[in-house]
Amino acid sequence: MLDVLVIGAGPVGLACALEAQRRGLQVAVVDKGALVNSIVGYPYNMEFFSTPELLEIGGYPFPTYHYKPLREDALDYYQRVARAENLVLRLHERVLSMSGEQGNFLVTTDKGSIPARNVVVATGFYDLPNPLGVPGEDLPHVSHYYREPYLHVAQRVVVIGAKNSSAKAALQLTRAGAQVTLLVRGPEVSDSVKYWIRPDLVNRIKEGKITAHFNTTITAIRPDAVEILTPEGPREVPTDYVYALTGYHPDEALLGRLGVEPDPADEARAPLFDPATHETTNPGVFVAGTVCGGRATSRWFIENGRHHAQLIAAHLAASVPA
C-alpha cells in the first residue's frame, strides 16, 4: 500500500510527491493526462509571467536562456525533475472514485485500483473551461483553448474575454494576419491584464487593427457569425473561428467524490482545509496548488502553490507509521 497517492502530475503535484518521497514515504502520482498536462496545453512558445526561480521545485535550478521561461522550457524542466527523483508516474489514468478512510483508502481509476493511506489532490483547474451557456458553443469552430495564430491567417476570428489569455491571443492573431474582433463583457480591457500587455492591446484597438465591443453579451454562436447584444442593440459579428477564453474551474464533481467539501462561506467554493497542513475535512485527504482556491483561480499559482508541498510532506512524515 502507498503511503501517499498524489492526484495530479502538475508542478505542485510533482513537488508534493518528491517532498514526501524524500521523507521516506512510498509515493505515486496519477494523472488523467500527460506529465504537467496543463502546460502541455498552453500556447506554443508561451512566455510565463514568472522568472524561472519562482517555478523551481525540489531545489532543482531551472536553467533557461530567457528572462522569463517559455512553455517548452518548463516542459523540459519538470520532466527532468520527475526523472531525477525517480517518481512513480501513472499517466493517462483517470481517477473515478475513492472509498475507505485514512490509512485505508482505495482509489478507483479507469485502469484499476490504487490502495493508499493518504491522498493529495493537486488537480488544478485548466481542464474545465467556464462555459458561455449559449447555443452553438459546441460547434467545431469554437474552442476554449488557444494554441497558435498561424492556422488563422486571413480569417475572421472572434476572441471572447479581456484578460491575459484573450489579450495575448488577440495580439498574436492580429500580427499573424487574422481579422480579430474582441468581445468583452465589461466596459474595458481588464485592469488585471499584465502591464506590458494591456497598453499594446488598448493601442491596437485605438488604431483599428483590432475591433472591440465592450459591455457585450453573447447570445448565440452560428457557423458563420456570433450574435451579441450591445448597449446599442443586437448585432452579428461575422466569423470563421471563435476563441472563448473565458477562464477555467476545478473539477468539483471529482472533489466531491474524493470527499473534499467546499467552504460554504466562500463564493469561490474553495475547499475547506487546515492552512497549516492542507488537510481537508476528510482526514487523510489533502489539497495543494491552484485547486485550493476553488473558482478563484488567481489565488494560487505555481509560485506560491509549490510551497504547499513542504507543509503536507512534513505532516505526513510525522503521522505515517514507520
UniProtKB/TrEMBL annotation:
Q: Which residues cross the membrane?
A: none
Gene3D superfamilies the UniProt entry points to: FAD/NAD(P)-binding domain (3.50.50.60)
Q: Name one GO molecular function term.
A: oxidoreductase activity
Origin, by domain of life? Bacteria
Which SUPFAM superfamilies would you find in this protein's record? FAD/NAD(P)-binding domain (SSF51905)
UniProt keyword terms in alphabetical order: Oxidoreductase
PANTHER family (UniProt xref): ANAEROBIC GLYCEROL-3-PHOSPHATE DEHYDROGENASE SUBUNIT B (PTHR42949:SF3)
Protein name, please?
Answer: Uncharacterized protein
